[in-house]
Amino acid sequence: MSEKLLVVSDSPTDRVIIQKILHDSEIITACDSSEVRRHLDENPDIDLIILDITMPNMAGFQILNDLKSDTRYTNTHILILTNYDEPESEVKGLKLGAADYIRKPLNTESLKVRIGIHLKLIRIQQLYEQRMHEHSVTFDALFQQAPIGIAISHAGESLTAGSNNWISINPIFEQITGRTSEEIMELGWEKITHPDDLVADRNNFERLQSGQIRSYAMEKRYIRPDNTMVWVHMIVAPINLSGKHKSSHICLIQDITERKAIERVVNESERSKAVLLDNLPGMMYRCFFDKDWTMQYVSNGCFELTGYSPGRLLYNRDLSYNDLILPKYQNWLWERWEKAVYEHTKLTEEYEIITASGETKWVWEQGQGIYDENGQIVALEGLIIDITDRKNNEIRLKYLNEKNPETGLLNLRSFELIYAENYHLDTESKRAAIMVNLRRFSAINSVYGYRFGVKLIQDIAKCLISLVSEDRLLFHIANDQFVFYMVNYRDKQNLNHFCERIIRTLDTGIAQKTFCFNIGILEIDKYTCDDAENVLKRVMSASKQINDHERFGYCIFSNAMEQKQQREITILNALTETLSKEQDPSLFMVYQPILDFKTNEIAGFEALARYKNDDLGEISPIEFIPIAESSQLMGLLGKRIMRIVFAFAAYISREGYHPIAFYINISAIQLLSETFLSDVNELIRETGVVPRNLTFEITESVFANNYQEINEKLDKLKTMGIKIAIDDFGTGYSSLARQRELNVDCLKIDKYFINKLIHVRTENAITGDIISMAHKLGHWVVAEGVECEKQRQYLMENNCDMMQGYLYSKPLAEQAAIDLLNQSVNHCRIRYKAN
Ligand code: C2E
Ligand code: CA
Ligand code: CA
Fold first, then answer.
1. Whose CA is nearest to atom 27 of ligand 1?
2. What pLDDT was estimated at residue 764?
3. What CA–CA distance (Å, rounded) separates 38 from 33?
4. Interatomic CA distance for residues 657 and 651, integer angstroms
5. By CB atoms within 10 Å of each CB, which of 100, 168, 547, 571 scores lowest?
């Protein structure tokens, strides 16, 4: 780029010389001040003026002075041409603002060099100005658009009220403080600073000004016009904008109100966490996932739990947490944690630790892994609490739950659990159950006392424990019953041998030789023995097969037993079904006439139960009554039977026959039931039967256990008008002597004695004695099972009152019984009924 120069001189020669020398530049020439003005107006971009001072009438000085006092040209470079012998003009020109002087006569070379230097200088100056301009544009943009508040001020203490020394405040600063620049300048920073932050701010500022610090940062509050606070982070630093302002500074602020609010919440939650941690019943921790469980944090509860202060465990200072864990749990716990960490799940475990005092404690630990953003484990955090008391109780309860407290052997519950577990796991190996049953244990207790009983059971347990092996577990499932659960035996012979061993062991181990044992064996079949109950039922039924006369005996469960059991289940189901219905013809009654020897007429009927259905055919009461008795059904069945018989008896008496007695068999179980008397009353009301026409047959065995209670019940029945007969007399428990005390009216002599009359010579038969004894006690006597004339003859001769048996009639259906009554002449004749 070529420069533009204005050459002012009245000498045409000089002008030409200069033009020639500076031929590279654009030269404009002027010879007087008016020409100078004109050229300057037309060419505002003139870079350099060369002004000849030596013009006449001081015109040069005048032009120089005019130019320098015009603000447009104060910065314009002016070189003056002076005469070599007038040094005072040089001084004067420089004073007036000339940049330099060149002496005449003009020397081509030096002129060239001088001007060259000035042009270079001008160029540098121009460049500098351009830069400055660019900087200020950038600064303005930053200042206006920066996302932080910026204020720049001059002069230190100037920031007080009304001092008006702020030079710049950007829009964000205004926005944060909620005030305009004017307001801020008017009030000064102290007035808008929160009083609590003022002292610190002032101190900082003073130290900054005195040069003690180079800058400062602080968090402070400004008061906004609406009196709300705004928290800011503020940085104050000195800046040197220009030489004029010695202590200018810049203040940057950032709104941190929101962060402060969060901080407050966090602080509050940190505080409550600390309170919580210190008051937790147990020890909170944060540790590395390493085999020492190196603790990074341990709450104060550590001391109470372990006896060590937290500091001793931190970073394994004195010992590691792993040192506290009982060795048998160490690997296990590590594996549990590995799993939890791998699966990112919580860990909850119980184990034992040893405290500082050497005491063992049960602890409960719950914790979880802490992972970084890549899912890498960084630490574990959790809680450990003392559960020793609970655990001890649990262990005790578990013991009580699983073991028999007297022998310490696993109990029934355990057998059920272990069997269930084993049933699903083990499908291949052979398994058997062997039950050892002490016979008549309750009798032993009542004779020798309970203490003796307990001791005896413990002795038996001791003997049997000596036979336990890995494949033979022993359970004490009830007072007098032990069960061996055997796996992996070879064959039946194996089992028999084992039973022989049991017998030998008990024989030598138990001193008293009067105690007897039944042993049942069951080879477990997976399909029929799907639960422990089925196993025990079967092995028990095998043990019951043993003859009472043997001291020791064993019996292996067979399919026949199984079939019998199966049939029992079928019958039980059928009975249950029948009794669930209001009426069911499957259950019905037959009536066997009882003949009065004196009148030779029917005095009554014994009601006998029958059950018949398509699947089972007709079943004897000898079979189904015991099944009902051994289940809960007997009460219901007995009541159903009474209802049928009472209704029939009521019908017969309503029909007007001579009073007919109905003998009904009452099972011991029925009689013992609490609701028996109320049931009878209810049925009497319901059917309208006359109680006088009812005789209840009971067997002697009912007196065996609850003599007093039964006798009182019988008394109540008698006051209602119902009569009592002892069934099957002579076969059971009671003796004739006892009959006196019993509330009974009638004896039914068992068929056994009647049968004897056929074979034994009549004079030797005791049946006659039984009859006369019964009469002496005021009882009437019925002979059962009379089948032949010889028996009838004997009974008649010995004053027996009545007889029942095939000789006269088999049991009859209702209609047949009525027909028989009608055939009897007397009965027909004395029918009172009007129609
Ligand atoms: P039980 O009470 O001794 O009944 C007499 C049994 O002898 C009846 O057998 C009857 O049919 C049978 N019998 C009658 N006369 C003769 C005879 O001359 N010769 C022979 N060999 N037998 C004769 P059943 O009906 O089979 O009853 C058997 C047992 O079932 C009864 O013996 C009784 O103990 C019980 N039972 C029957 N019905 C009921 C009932 O309704 N309730 C209760 N709890 N038990 C009943
Ligand atoms: Ca009977
Ligand atoms: Ca009988």
1. 621
2. 81
3. 9
4. 10
5. 547
- 593 Cα to the center of ligand 3, angstroms: 13
Q: Is 768 in the pocket of ligand 1 (CB under 6 A)?
A: no
Closest CA to 249 of 259, 261, 260, 237: 237
Could you give the 3-state DSSP secondary structure of residue 603? strand
Task: Find the ligand nearest to 697 CA.
Answer: 2
Question: In angstroms, rounded to a whole number, what is the distance separating the alpha carbons of residues 118 and 76?
Answer: 11
**Three-class DSSP category at 111:** helix
Per residue in 381-439, pLDDT (tens digit) is 999 999 999 888 888 788 778 899 899 999 999 999 889 888 877 667 889 999 999 98
What is the token pair recorded at 623?
A: 């079979």
Measure the CA–CA gap between 32 and 29, rounded to whole angstroms: 10
On whether the CB atoms of residues 46 and 39 are closer than 8 A, the answer is: yes
DSSP 303-316: HHHHSS-HHHHBTT
**618 CB within 6 A, ligand 1:** no
Ligand 1 pocket, 625 CB below 6 A? yes
Residue nearest to atom 23 of ligand 1 (CA): 785
Rounded (10°) CA dihedral 312, 316, 322, 327: -80
DSSP of 179-241: --HHHHHHH-TTTTB-HHHHHHHHHHHHHHHTTS-S-EEEEEEEEPTTS-EEEEEEEEEE---
Token pair listed for 645: 């018989």
Q: Is 506 in the pocket of ligand 1 (CB under 6 A)?
A: no
How far apart are alpha carbons 557 and 541 in whole angstroms? 7
Residue 348, H or E segment:
strand 347-354
CA distance 532 to 115: 124
Count Cβ atoms below 10 Å from residue 828 Cβ, excluding itself: 12
Which residue type is seen at 112? K
Range 739-756 average pLDDT: 87
CB 404 within 8 A of CB 411: yes
Phi, psi for residue 362 in degrees, rounded to 5: -85, 135
Ligand 2 centroid distance, CA of 589 (Å): 13
Q: Kindly report the protein residue whose alpha carbon is nearest to atom 21 of ligand 1.
A: 785
Contacts of 740 (CB under 8 A, 6+ apart): 777
How crowded is residue 488: how many other Cβ atoms within 10 Å of its Cβ? Answer: 14
3-state secondary structure of 320: coil
Q: What is the atom index within ligand 1 of the atom nearest the CA of 670? A: 44
Q: Decide whether any atom of ligand 1 lies within 6 Å of the 331 Cβ.
A: no
Q: Is the pTM of this model over 0.70?
A: no
Q: Is the CB of 665 under 6 A from ligand 1?
A: yes
| DSSP bridge partners of 129 | none
Strands 229-238 and 249-255: antiparallel
Ligand 2 is an ion; residues with CB less than 5 A from it: 665, 697, 727
| CA-proximal residue: ligand 1, atom 25 (nearest) | 608
Q: Which residues contact 23 (CB under 8 A, 6 or more apart)?
A: none
Cα diameter, the chain: 200
DSSP of 771-833: HHHHHHTT-EEEE----SHHHHHHHHHTT--EE-STTT---B-HHHHHHHHHHSHHHHHT---
Instruction: Say yes or no: CB of residue 752 within 6 Å of ligand 1.
Output: no
Helix axis angle, 441-448 relative to 450-465, nearest 10°?
A: 130
Task: List, for residues 531-586, the tens digit of each pLDDT value.
Answer: 899 899 899 989 988 876 788 999 999 888 878 878 988 999 999 999 999 999 99
> Following CA atoms 758, 760, 763, 767 in sequence, which dihedral angle do they give, to the nearest 10 degrees?
-70
Other beta carbons less than 10 A from residue 626's beta carbon: 13
| Residue 590 CA, ligand 1 centroid: distance in Å | 10
